[in-house]
Amino acid sequence: MPKSYNTTQGQAWDQIAAELWGREDHLHHLLAANPKHRHLQILPADLKLNVPDISIPAEEEPPPWQKR
């Protein structure tokens, strides 16, 4: 079952990727899962985004002190 995420006013794709997966550079997963909204740079409030289930290899995981 796909997960979803509701935005708050002014969020950007990289902020959400960092919140979800601990890395801004995973924003391409969000863009691919939400093609209708990929043209937006700053997101409006209460936009429901699809969150793909991705697997992050251990070598890509941030160190424990960088996890949120």
UniProtKB/TrEMBL annotation:
Protein's organism: Dethiosulfatarculus sandiegensis
Top-level taxon of the source organism: Bacteria
Matches recorded under Pfam families: Phage_tail_X
Protein name: Tail protein
Classification via InterPro entries: GpX-like
